[in-house]
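Build the 3D complex.
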Amino acid sequence: MLAWICGGALLVAMVTDTLAMLGRAVHVPLLGAIEVVQTAVLFASAGGLIVAALDSAHARVHLLVSRLPAGVRDALARLHAAASAVLYLALLAGSAWIASDLWNGHEESELLLIPYRPLRVALIGALAVLLVHSLTRIRVRQRP
Amino acid sequence: MTGQPLLGLAGVITLLVLLLTGMPIGIALGLVGLGGLALTLGLEPAVIKSGVLLFETLTRYELGTLPLFMLMAHLCFAAEASRDFFDVAARFLGHRRGGLAIASVAGCAGFGSINGSSLATTATIGLVALPEMRSRGYADSLATGSIAAGGTLGQMIPPSGALIVFGIIAEQSIGALFTAAIVPGITQMLSYFLVIALWVRLQPGIAPRLPGSSWAERRAALRRILDIGVLVVVVTGGIAVGWVTPSEAAAVGAAGALLICWLRKRLNGQTLRRALEETLRTSGLIYLVIVGALIFSAFISVTGLTEAIGTSIAGLGLGPSGTMLLVAAFLLLIGSVLDGLAMMLLTTPILLPLVTGFGLSPVWFGIFLVRAMEIGFVHPPIGMNLYVIQGVAPDVSIGRVFRGVLPFLAADLIHLVLLALFPVIALGLQHWLGR
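Done.
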Protein backbone atom coordinates (compact mmCIF):
# COMPACT_ATOMS: atom_id res chain seq x y z
CA MET A 1 0.00 0.00 0.00
CA LEU A 2 2.79 2.40 1.00
CA ALA A 3 4.56 1.64 -2.29
CA TRP A 4 1.45 2.62 -4.26
CA ILE A 5 0.69 5.78 -2.23
CA CYS A 6 4.23 7.16 -2.13
CA GLY A 7 5.09 5.67 -5.51
CA GLY A 8 1.93 7.33 -6.78
CA ALA A 9 3.28 10.66 -5.54
CA LEU A 10 6.41 9.97 -7.55
CA LEU A 11 4.33 9.28 -10.64
CA VAL A 12 2.49 12.57 -10.06
CA ALA A 13 5.86 14.35 -10.00
CA MET A 14 6.87 12.53 -13.18
CA VAL A 15 3.71 13.46 -15.09
CA THR A 16 3.72 17.05 -13.83
CA ASP A 17 7.33 17.76 -14.80
CA THR A 18 6.93 16.03 -18.16
CA LEU A 19 3.84 18.12 -18.95
CA ALA A 20 5.63 21.25 -17.76
CA MET A 21 8.52 20.54 -20.12
CA LEU A 22 6.20 19.81 -23.06
CA GLY A 23 4.11 22.86 -22.21
CA ARG A 24 7.18 25.07 -22.24
CA ALA A 25 8.16 23.68 -25.64
CA VAL A 26 4.77 24.71 -27.14
CA HIS A 27 4.67 28.00 -25.20
CA VAL A 28 1.85 26.88 -22.88
CA PRO A 29 3.52 27.08 -19.47
CA LEU A 30 2.13 24.85 -16.74
CA LEU A 31 2.04 27.29 -13.85
CA GLY A 32 2.71 25.87 -10.41
CA ALA A 33 4.33 22.66 -11.71
CA ILE A 34 7.29 23.13 -9.38
CA GLU A 35 4.97 23.43 -6.37
CA VAL A 36 3.17 20.20 -7.30
CA VAL A 37 6.51 18.42 -7.72
CA GLN A 38 7.75 19.76 -4.36
CA THR A 39 4.62 18.43 -2.64
CA ALA A 40 4.86 15.06 -4.38
CA VAL A 41 8.55 14.79 -3.54
CA LEU A 42 7.82 15.31 0.16
CA PHE A 43 5.33 12.43 0.20
CA ALA A 44 7.60 10.20 -1.89
CA SER A 45 10.65 10.92 0.26
CA ALA A 46 8.78 10.46 3.55
CA GLY A 47 7.51 7.12 2.22
CA GLY A 48 10.99 6.25 1.00
CA LEU A 49 12.46 6.86 4.45
CA ILE A 50 9.89 4.47 5.94
CA VAL A 51 10.33 1.78 3.27
CA ALA A 52 14.13 1.89 3.66
CA ALA A 53 13.86 1.65 7.46
CA LEU A 54 11.31 -1.20 7.40
CA ASP A 55 13.53 -3.15 5.00
CA SER A 56 16.69 -2.35 7.04
CA ALA A 57 18.14 -1.07 3.78
CA HIS A 58 20.09 1.87 5.19
CA ALA A 59 23.62 2.30 3.86
CA ARG A 60 26.37 1.37 6.32
CA VAL A 61 30.09 0.53 6.36
CA HIS A 62 30.57 -3.24 6.69
CA LEU A 63 34.37 -3.34 6.82
CA LEU A 64 34.75 -4.19 10.54
CA VAL A 65 31.28 -5.33 11.52
CA SER A 66 31.22 -8.35 9.23
CA ARG A 67 34.34 -9.67 11.02
CA LEU A 68 32.90 -9.36 14.54
CA PRO A 69 31.33 -12.23 16.55
CA ALA A 70 27.54 -12.56 16.37
CA GLY A 71 27.04 -11.39 19.99
CA VAL A 72 28.92 -8.14 19.40
CA ARG A 73 27.07 -7.56 16.14
CA ASP A 74 23.77 -8.02 17.97
CA ALA A 75 24.77 -5.52 20.66
CA LEU A 76 25.89 -3.02 18.03
CA ALA A 77 22.64 -3.43 16.07
CA ARG A 78 20.64 -2.59 19.22
CA LEU A 79 22.89 0.36 19.93
CA HIS A 80 22.38 1.61 16.38
CA ALA A 81 18.61 1.23 16.76
CA ALA A 82 18.82 3.34 19.93
CA ALA A 83 20.93 5.94 18.11
CA SER A 84 18.38 6.00 15.27
CA ALA A 85 15.59 6.53 17.81
CA VAL A 86 17.47 9.50 19.33
CA LEU A 87 17.95 11.13 15.92
CA TYR A 88 14.35 10.53 14.82
CA LEU A 89 13.12 11.88 18.16
CA ALA A 90 15.19 15.04 17.72
CA LEU A 91 13.95 15.50 14.13
CA LEU A 92 10.39 14.87 15.28
CA ALA A 93 10.73 17.39 18.10
CA GLY A 94 12.27 19.97 15.77
CA SER A 95 9.60 19.46 13.09
CA ALA A 96 6.76 19.60 15.65
CA TRP A 97 8.26 22.74 17.19
CA ILE A 98 8.35 24.56 13.85
CA ALA A 99 4.91 23.28 12.87
CA SER A 100 3.39 24.56 16.12
CA ASP A 101 5.17 27.93 15.72
CA LEU A 102 3.89 28.34 12.14
CA TRP A 103 0.47 26.70 12.63
CA ASN A 104 -1.42 29.98 12.67
CA GLY A 105 0.74 31.51 9.98
CA HIS A 106 -1.21 29.63 7.31
CA GLU A 107 1.85 28.94 5.17
CA GLU A 108 1.02 28.10 1.58
CA SER A 109 2.73 27.94 -1.79
CA GLU A 110 2.79 31.07 -3.95
CA LEU A 111 0.92 30.07 -7.12
CA LEU A 112 -1.35 27.14 -6.28
CA LEU A 113 -1.77 28.08 -2.61
CA ILE A 114 -0.97 24.52 -1.50
CA PRO A 115 -1.18 24.63 2.32
CA TYR A 116 1.96 23.55 4.16
CA ARG A 117 0.17 22.34 7.28
CA PRO A 118 -0.73 18.88 5.85
CA LEU A 119 2.82 18.53 4.53
CA ARG A 120 4.29 19.22 7.96
CA VAL A 121 1.80 16.84 9.58
CA ALA A 122 2.65 14.11 7.05
CA LEU A 123 6.36 14.53 7.77
CA ILE A 124 5.78 14.41 11.53
CA GLY A 125 3.70 11.26 11.03
CA ALA A 126 6.49 9.64 9.02
CA LEU A 127 9.03 10.54 11.73
CA ALA A 128 6.74 9.05 14.38
CA VAL A 129 6.61 5.78 12.40
CA LEU A 130 10.41 5.79 12.11
CA LEU A 131 10.78 6.47 15.83
CA VAL A 132 8.44 3.63 16.81
CA HIS A 133 10.18 1.30 14.38
CA SER A 134 13.60 2.14 15.85
CA LEU A 135 12.34 1.65 19.40
CA THR A 136 11.00 -1.80 18.55
CA ARG A 137 14.32 -2.70 16.89
CA ILE A 138 16.14 -2.06 20.18
CA ARG A 139 14.37 -5.10 21.64
CA VAL A 140 14.79 -7.38 18.63
CA ARG A 141 17.63 -9.90 18.86
CA GLN A 142 19.59 -10.15 15.63
CA ARG A 143 19.58 -13.55 13.94
CA PRO A 144 23.02 -15.23 14.12
CA MET B 1 44.00 24.49 16.25
CA THR B 2 42.07 25.47 19.38
CA GLY B 3 38.52 25.86 20.63
CA GLN B 4 35.74 25.10 18.17
CA PRO B 5 37.86 23.74 15.28
CA LEU B 6 39.09 21.15 17.75
CA LEU B 7 35.47 20.28 18.52
CA GLY B 8 34.87 19.89 14.78
CA LEU B 9 37.87 17.57 14.54
CA ALA B 10 36.53 15.54 17.48
CA GLY B 11 33.22 15.32 15.61
CA VAL B 12 34.94 14.01 12.48
CA ILE B 13 36.82 11.37 14.50
CA THR B 14 33.63 10.36 16.34
CA LEU B 15 31.84 10.06 13.02
CA LEU B 16 34.59 7.87 11.62
CA VAL B 17 34.39 5.57 14.66
CA LEU B 18 30.59 5.35 14.48
CA LEU B 19 30.72 4.55 10.77
CA LEU B 20 33.23 1.78 11.38
CA THR B 21 30.89 0.23 13.98
CA GLY B 22 28.41 -0.21 11.12
CA MET B 23 25.96 2.49 12.20
CA PRO B 24 23.73 3.57 9.28
CA ILE B 25 25.61 6.40 7.54
CA GLY B 26 22.71 8.85 7.64
CA ILE B 27 22.10 8.21 11.36
CA ALA B 28 25.79 8.64 12.23
CA LEU B 29 26.07 11.89 10.25
CA GLY B 30 22.86 13.30 11.71
CA LEU B 31 23.63 12.29 15.28
CA VAL B 32 27.17 13.69 15.29
CA GLY B 33 25.93 16.85 13.57
CA LEU B 34 23.08 17.24 16.03
CA GLY B 35 25.31 16.57 19.04
CA GLY B 36 27.91 18.99 17.74
CA LEU B 37 25.34 21.71 17.11
CA ALA B 38 23.93 21.14 20.60
CA LEU B 39 27.40 21.64 22.08
CA THR B 40 28.18 24.73 20.02
CA LEU B 41 24.78 26.46 19.79
CA GLY B 42 22.71 24.78 22.52
CA LEU B 43 20.12 21.97 22.42
CA GLU B 44 17.09 24.06 21.43
CA PRO B 45 18.69 25.76 18.37
CA ALA B 46 20.20 22.42 17.34
CA VAL B 47 16.83 20.63 17.39
CA ILE B 48 15.07 23.48 15.59
CA LYS B 49 17.85 23.80 12.98
CA SER B 50 17.60 20.04 12.29
CA GLY B 51 13.82 20.25 11.91
CA VAL B 52 14.13 23.19 9.51
CA LEU B 53 16.81 21.42 7.46
CA LEU B 54 14.67 18.27 7.21
CA PHE B 55 11.57 20.03 5.85
CA GLU B 56 13.56 22.31 3.55
CA THR B 57 15.46 19.38 2.12
CA LEU B 58 12.50 17.07 1.57
CA THR B 59 10.55 19.78 -0.25
CA ARG B 60 13.39 20.72 -2.57
CA TYR B 61 12.41 20.59 -6.20
CA GLU B 62 15.76 19.12 -7.25
CA LEU B 63 15.32 16.23 -4.84
CA GLY B 64 12.83 14.72 -7.29
CA THR B 65 15.70 14.18 -9.73
CA LEU B 66 17.11 11.25 -7.78
CA PRO B 67 14.05 8.97 -7.46
CA LEU B 68 12.86 9.76 -10.98
CA PHE B 69 16.20 8.74 -12.51
CA MET B 70 16.09 5.63 -10.32
CA LEU B 71 12.60 4.86 -11.55
CA MET B 72 13.83 5.26 -15.11
CA ALA B 73 16.66 2.78 -14.43
CA HIS B 74 14.34 0.21 -12.81
CA LEU B 75 11.89 0.45 -15.69
CA CYS B 76 14.68 0.12 -18.27
CA PHE B 77 15.91 -2.89 -16.34
CA ALA B 78 12.41 -4.38 -16.47
CA ALA B 79 12.47 -3.78 -20.23
CA GLU B 80 15.69 -5.90 -20.37
CA ALA B 81 17.76 -3.03 -21.73
CA SER B 82 20.93 -4.17 -19.94
CA ARG B 83 21.28 -7.27 -22.11
CA ASP B 84 20.61 -5.24 -25.25
CA PHE B 85 23.46 -2.79 -24.57
CA PHE B 86 25.96 -5.62 -24.16
CA ASP B 87 24.57 -7.46 -27.20
CA VAL B 88 25.11 -4.50 -29.51
CA ALA B 89 28.68 -3.97 -28.32
CA ALA B 90 29.41 -7.72 -28.56
CA ARG B 91 28.04 -7.91 -32.14
CA PHE B 92 30.31 -5.08 -33.27
CA LEU B 93 33.46 -5.86 -31.26
CA GLY B 94 33.24 -9.52 -30.24
CA HIS B 95 35.32 -10.80 -33.18
CA ARG B 96 38.37 -8.74 -32.14
CA ARG B 97 40.83 -10.12 -29.63
CA GLY B 98 39.55 -8.96 -26.24
CA GLY B 99 36.43 -7.69 -28.00
CA LEU B 100 33.98 -9.15 -25.50
CA ALA B 101 35.85 -7.47 -22.64
CA ILE B 102 35.68 -4.17 -24.53
CA ALA B 103 32.00 -4.87 -25.22
CA SER B 104 31.46 -5.41 -21.47
CA VAL B 105 32.98 -2.02 -20.68
CA ALA B 106 30.91 -0.42 -23.46
CA GLY B 107 27.83 -2.23 -22.12
CA CYS B 108 28.57 -0.82 -18.66
CA ALA B 109 28.85 2.68 -20.15
CA GLY B 110 25.58 2.18 -22.03
CA PHE B 111 23.75 0.87 -18.98
CA GLY B 112 25.41 3.62 -16.93
CA SER B 113 23.67 6.16 -19.14
CA ILE B 114 20.30 5.03 -17.82
CA ASN B 115 21.38 4.08 -14.33
CA GLY B 116 23.39 6.03 -11.76
CA SER B 117 24.81 3.25 -9.64
CA SER B 118 28.16 1.52 -9.86
CA LEU B 119 27.01 -1.61 -8.02
CA ALA B 120 23.83 -2.01 -10.09
CA THR B 121 25.81 -1.62 -13.33
CA THR B 122 28.41 -4.17 -12.25
CA ALA B 123 25.79 -6.69 -11.13
CA THR B 124 23.57 -6.25 -14.18
CA ILE B 125 26.25 -6.36 -16.87
CA GLY B 126 28.14 -9.00 -14.89
CA LEU B 127 25.15 -11.35 -15.04
CA VAL B 128 24.97 -10.99 -18.83
CA ALA B 129 28.61 -10.62 -19.90
CA LEU B 130 30.57 -12.75 -17.45
CA PRO B 131 29.07 -16.15 -18.39
CA GLU B 132 29.43 -15.19 -22.07
CA MET B 133 33.13 -14.36 -21.74
CA ARG B 134 33.94 -17.38 -19.62
CA SER B 135 32.14 -19.77 -21.96
CA ARG B 136 34.14 -18.31 -24.88
CA GLY B 137 37.47 -19.08 -23.19
CA TYR B 138 38.32 -15.63 -21.77
CA ALA B 139 40.64 -15.70 -18.73
CA ASP B 140 38.79 -15.11 -15.45
CA SER B 141 41.12 -12.24 -14.57
CA LEU B 142 40.28 -10.28 -17.73
CA ALA B 143 36.58 -11.16 -17.65
CA THR B 144 36.03 -10.18 -14.01
CA GLY B 145 38.44 -7.23 -14.03
CA SER B 146 36.87 -5.57 -17.06
CA ILE B 147 33.35 -5.74 -15.59
CA ALA B 148 34.38 -4.69 -12.06
CA ALA B 149 36.18 -1.65 -13.48
CA GLY B 150 33.59 -0.98 -16.18
CA GLY B 151 30.85 -1.00 -13.54
CA THR B 152 32.28 2.15 -11.99
CA LEU B 153 31.24 3.98 -15.17
CA GLY B 154 27.68 3.71 -13.88
CA GLN B 155 28.56 6.28 -11.28
CA MET B 156 30.32 8.72 -13.58
CA ILE B 157 28.28 8.71 -16.78
CA PRO B 158 25.14 10.84 -16.35
CA PRO B 159 22.68 10.38 -14.79
CA SER B 160 24.85 9.70 -11.75
CA GLY B 161 23.34 9.16 -8.31
CA ALA B 162 26.58 10.26 -6.64
CA LEU B 163 26.65 13.54 -8.59
CA ILE B 164 23.02 14.25 -7.69
CA VAL B 165 23.84 13.74 -3.99
CA PHE B 166 26.93 15.94 -4.34
CA GLY B 167 24.90 18.60 -6.14
CA ILE B 168 22.35 18.70 -3.34
CA ILE B 169 24.76 18.78 -0.40
CA ALA B 170 27.23 21.14 -2.10
CA GLU B 171 24.43 23.29 -3.58
CA GLN B 172 25.81 23.00 -7.10
CA SER B 173 23.88 22.77 -10.37
CA ILE B 174 23.15 19.11 -11.11
CA GLY B 175 22.95 19.97 -14.81
CA ALA B 176 26.45 21.48 -14.72
CA LEU B 177 27.75 18.40 -12.89
CA PHE B 178 26.18 16.04 -15.43
CA THR B 179 27.63 18.03 -18.34
CA ALA B 180 31.04 18.08 -16.68
CA ALA B 181 30.93 14.29 -16.19
CA ILE B 182 30.49 13.46 -19.88
CA VAL B 183 34.12 13.85 -21.03
CA PRO B 184 35.67 12.25 -17.90
CA GLY B 185 33.22 9.34 -18.32
CA ILE B 186 34.14 8.87 -21.98
CA THR B 187 37.89 9.19 -21.37
CA GLN B 188 37.61 6.74 -18.49
CA MET B 189 35.89 4.25 -20.80
CA LEU B 190 38.56 4.78 -23.47
CA SER B 191 41.31 4.23 -20.91
CA TYR B 192 39.75 0.84 -20.09
CA PHE B 193 39.63 -0.01 -23.82
CA LEU B 194 43.33 0.82 -24.00
CA VAL B 195 44.11 -1.37 -20.98
CA ILE B 196 42.29 -4.32 -22.57
CA ALA B 197 43.98 -3.78 -25.95
CA LEU B 198 47.44 -3.67 -24.35
CA TRP B 199 46.74 -6.61 -22.08
CA VAL B 200 45.59 -8.94 -24.87
CA ARG B 201 48.52 -7.82 -27.01
CA LEU B 202 50.93 -8.84 -24.25
CA GLN B 203 49.02 -12.04 -23.37
CA PRO B 204 47.02 -13.11 -26.43
CA GLY B 205 46.02 -16.39 -24.77
CA ILE B 206 43.68 -14.68 -22.28
CA ALA B 207 41.17 -13.67 -24.97
CA PRO B 208 40.67 -15.91 -28.03
CA ARG B 209 39.43 -14.51 -31.33
CA LEU B 210 35.75 -15.29 -31.99
CA PRO B 211 33.72 -15.52 -35.20
CA GLY B 212 32.23 -12.19 -36.28
CA SER B 213 28.55 -11.28 -36.59
CA SER B 214 26.87 -10.51 -39.87
CA TRP B 215 25.69 -6.95 -40.61
CA ALA B 216 22.09 -8.19 -40.47
CA GLU B 217 22.69 -9.38 -36.88
CA ARG B 218 24.34 -6.10 -36.03
CA ARG B 219 21.47 -4.07 -37.44
CA ALA B 220 18.96 -6.23 -35.55
CA ALA B 221 20.89 -5.65 -32.29
CA LEU B 222 21.04 -1.91 -32.99
CA ARG B 223 17.28 -1.77 -33.61
CA ARG B 224 16.69 -3.25 -30.16
CA ILE B 225 18.41 -0.35 -28.41
CA LEU B 226 17.02 2.35 -30.67
CA ASP B 227 14.23 3.32 -28.26
CA ILE B 228 16.47 3.43 -25.18
CA GLY B 229 19.17 5.16 -27.22
CA VAL B 230 16.79 7.97 -28.17
CA LEU B 231 15.77 8.28 -24.53
CA VAL B 232 19.41 8.54 -23.40
CA VAL B 233 20.16 11.20 -26.04
CA VAL B 234 17.09 13.22 -25.06
CA VAL B 235 17.87 13.00 -21.34
CA THR B 236 21.64 13.52 -21.32
CA GLY B 237 21.81 15.69 -24.43
CA GLY B 238 18.85 17.74 -23.24
CA ILE B 239 20.63 18.57 -19.99
CA ALA B 240 23.96 19.27 -21.70
CA VAL B 241 22.54 21.77 -24.19
CA GLY B 242 20.17 23.30 -21.65
CA TRP B 243 16.86 22.25 -23.21
CA VAL B 244 15.68 20.70 -19.98
CA THR B 245 16.57 20.98 -16.32
CA PRO B 246 17.87 17.79 -14.64
CA SER B 247 14.54 17.42 -12.80
CA GLU B 248 12.60 17.65 -16.05
CA ALA B 249 15.04 15.29 -17.75
CA ALA B 250 14.51 12.78 -14.94
CA ALA B 251 10.74 13.06 -15.30
CA VAL B 252 10.89 12.72 -19.08
CA GLY B 253 13.33 9.80 -18.68
CA ALA B 254 11.01 7.98 -16.27
CA ALA B 255 7.98 8.66 -18.49
CA GLY B 256 9.91 7.50 -21.56
CA ALA B 257 11.08 4.34 -19.78
CA LEU B 258 7.49 3.64 -18.75
CA LEU B 259 6.44 4.00 -22.39
CA ILE B 260 9.28 1.75 -23.61
CA CYS B 261 8.34 -0.86 -21.01
CA TRP B 262 4.76 -0.76 -22.24
CA LEU B 263 5.77 -0.92 -25.93
CA ARG B 264 8.00 -3.93 -25.19
CA LYS B 265 5.00 -5.56 -23.46
CA ARG B 266 6.83 -5.74 -20.12
CA LEU B 267 4.64 -3.36 -18.18
CA ASN B 268 2.12 -4.74 -15.72
CA GLY B 269 1.03 -4.00 -12.16
CA GLN B 270 3.69 -6.21 -10.66
CA THR B 271 6.53 -4.68 -12.70
CA LEU B 272 5.44 -1.15 -11.85
CA ARG B 273 4.97 -1.94 -8.17
CA ARG B 274 8.42 -3.57 -7.98
CA ALA B 275 10.02 -0.60 -9.76
CA LEU B 276 8.30 1.87 -7.41
CA GLU B 277 9.22 -0.14 -4.31
CA GLU B 278 12.87 -0.43 -5.34
CA THR B 279 12.95 3.28 -6.15
CA LEU B 280 11.44 4.26 -2.79
CA ARG B 281 13.79 1.97 -0.88
CA THR B 282 16.96 3.24 -2.54
CA SER B 283 15.92 6.88 -2.55
CA GLY B 284 14.82 6.60 1.10
CA LEU B 285 18.24 5.43 2.20
CA ILE B 286 19.92 8.21 0.21
CA TYR B 287 17.53 10.86 1.59
CA LEU B 288 18.44 9.92 5.15
CA VAL B 289 22.11 10.22 4.24
CA ILE B 290 21.53 13.62 2.61
CA VAL B 291 19.62 14.98 5.62
CA GLY B 292 22.29 13.62 7.98
CA ALA B 293 25.04 15.12 5.82
CA LEU B 294 23.40 18.55 5.82
CA ILE B 295 23.10 18.54 9.62
CA PHE B 296 26.72 17.40 9.90
CA SER B 297 27.74 20.04 7.40
CA ALA B 298 25.99 22.75 9.45
CA PHE B 299 27.96 21.61 12.50
CA ILE B 300 31.29 21.61 10.64
CA SER B 301 30.72 25.10 9.27
CA VAL B 302 29.86 26.43 12.75
CA THR B 303 33.12 25.07 14.20
CA GLY B 304 35.38 26.75 11.62
CA LEU B 305 37.26 23.47 11.11
CA THR B 306 37.46 23.97 7.35
CA GLU B 307 39.05 27.40 7.70
CA ALA B 308 41.59 26.00 10.17
CA ILE B 309 42.53 23.14 7.83
CA GLY B 310 42.63 25.57 4.88
CA THR B 311 45.04 27.85 6.75
CA SER B 312 47.26 24.89 7.64
CA ILE B 313 47.35 23.61 4.06
CA ALA B 314 47.91 27.09 2.61
CA GLY B 315 50.91 27.30 4.94
CA LEU B 316 52.47 24.37 3.11
CA GLY B 317 52.68 26.51 -0.04
CA LEU B 318 51.80 23.66 -2.42
CA GLY B 319 49.69 25.70 -4.83
CA PRO B 320 46.40 24.47 -6.35
CA SER B 321 47.82 21.44 -8.22
CA GLY B 322 49.94 20.28 -5.30
CA THR B 323 47.01 20.75 -2.94
CA MET B 324 44.75 18.71 -5.20
CA LEU B 325 47.27 15.87 -5.35
CA LEU B 326 47.38 15.98 -1.55
CA VAL B 327 43.57 15.92 -1.48
CA ALA B 328 43.59 12.98 -3.92
CA ALA B 329 45.95 11.03 -1.67
CA PHE B 330 43.75 11.84 1.32
CA LEU B 331 40.61 10.70 -0.50
CA LEU B 332 42.23 7.44 -1.57
CA LEU B 333 43.32 6.84 2.02
CA ILE B 334 39.84 7.55 3.40
CA GLY B 335 38.37 5.48 0.56
CA SER B 336 40.28 2.49 1.93
CA VAL B 337 38.23 2.44 5.10
CA LEU B 338 34.93 4.06 4.10
CA ASP B 339 32.62 3.30 1.23
CA GLY B 340 32.07 5.90 -1.47
CA LEU B 341 28.95 7.59 -0.13
CA ALA B 342 30.33 7.86 3.41
CA MET B 343 33.58 9.26 2.07
CA MET B 344 31.79 11.89 -0.01
CA LEU B 345 29.57 13.02 2.84
CA LEU B 346 32.38 13.12 5.39
CA THR B 347 34.83 15.00 3.20
CA THR B 348 32.65 17.40 1.18
CA PRO B 349 31.91 19.83 4.04
CA ILE B 350 35.63 19.97 4.86
CA LEU B 351 37.25 19.85 1.43
CA LEU B 352 34.84 21.84 -0.73
CA PRO B 353 35.47 25.25 0.95
CA LEU B 354 39.19 24.46 0.86
CA VAL B 355 39.10 23.71 -2.86
CA THR B 356 37.00 26.75 -3.74
CA GLY B 357 39.32 28.81 -1.55
CA PHE B 358 42.11 27.93 -3.99
CA GLY B 359 39.96 29.27 -6.81
CA LEU B 360 39.10 25.84 -8.16
CA SER B 361 35.67 25.02 -9.53
CA PRO B 362 33.25 23.20 -7.18
CA VAL B 363 31.78 21.43 -10.23
CA TRP B 364 35.19 20.10 -11.14
CA PHE B 365 35.70 19.03 -7.52
CA GLY B 366 32.43 17.06 -7.63
CA ILE B 367 33.71 15.13 -10.66
CA PHE B 368 37.09 14.63 -9.01
CA LEU B 369 35.46 13.36 -5.81
CA VAL B 370 33.22 10.91 -7.66
CA ARG B 371 36.23 9.67 -9.63
CA ALA B 372 38.07 9.06 -6.34
CA MET B 373 34.97 7.29 -4.99
CA GLU B 374 34.93 5.01 -8.02
CA ILE B 375 38.48 3.88 -7.29
CA GLY B 376 37.31 2.84 -3.83
CA PHE B 377 34.81 0.53 -5.53
CA VAL B 378 37.57 -1.56 -7.09
CA HIS B 379 40.31 -1.69 -4.50
CA PRO B 380 40.40 -3.71 -1.28
CA PRO B 381 39.48 -3.75 1.51
CA ILE B 382 36.13 -2.12 0.55
CA GLY B 383 36.10 -2.83 -3.22
CA MET B 384 32.35 -3.47 -3.40
CA ASN B 385 32.42 -4.18 -7.15
CA LEU B 386 34.88 -7.01 -6.57
CA TYR B 387 32.45 -8.69 -4.20
CA VAL B 388 29.53 -8.11 -6.57
CA ILE B 389 31.49 -9.86 -9.33
CA GLN B 390 32.39 -12.67 -6.99
CA GLY B 391 28.68 -13.03 -6.23
CA VAL B 392 28.05 -13.53 -9.95
CA ALA B 393 30.96 -15.99 -10.30
CA PRO B 394 31.42 -17.62 -6.87
CA ASP B 395 34.06 -20.08 -8.15
CA VAL B 396 36.48 -17.21 -8.93
CA SER B 397 38.47 -16.22 -5.85
CA ILE B 398 38.41 -12.61 -4.68
CA GLY B 399 42.21 -12.56 -5.10
CA ARG B 400 41.88 -13.44 -8.77
CA VAL B 401 39.18 -10.80 -9.26
CA PHE B 402 41.50 -8.24 -7.66
CA ARG B 403 44.44 -9.30 -9.83
CA GLY B 404 42.17 -8.85 -12.83
CA VAL B 405 41.23 -5.33 -11.82
CA LEU B 406 44.82 -4.18 -11.10
CA PRO B 407 45.64 -2.97 -14.66
CA PHE B 408 42.38 -0.98 -14.68
CA LEU B 409 43.21 0.44 -11.25
CA ALA B 410 46.52 1.70 -12.64
CA ALA B 411 44.59 3.41 -15.47
CA ASP B 412 42.20 4.87 -12.88
CA LEU B 413 45.03 6.43 -10.90
CA ILE B 414 46.56 7.96 -14.03
CA HIS B 415 43.12 9.29 -15.03
CA LEU B 416 42.60 10.77 -11.56
CA VAL B 417 45.96 12.55 -11.66
CA LEU B 418 45.19 13.89 -15.16
CA LEU B 419 41.84 15.13 -13.87
CA ALA B 420 43.63 16.90 -11.01
CA LEU B 421 46.24 18.49 -13.27
CA PHE B 422 43.91 19.36 -16.17
CA PRO B 423 40.49 20.48 -14.87
CA VAL B 424 39.60 21.28 -18.50
CA ILE B 425 38.84 17.55 -18.93
CA ALA B 426 35.75 18.14 -16.79
CA LEU B 427 35.04 21.79 -17.50
CA GLY B 428 35.91 22.04 -21.20
CA LEU B 429 32.56 20.81 -22.56
CA GLN B 430 30.65 23.30 -20.44
CA HIS B 431 32.76 26.17 -21.74
CA TRP B 432 32.44 24.89 -25.31
CA LEU B 433 28.65 24.71 -24.98
CA GLY B 434 28.73 28.21 -23.53
CA ARG B 435 27.00 27.22 -20.30
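The two ends of chain A are 31 Å apart (CA to CA).
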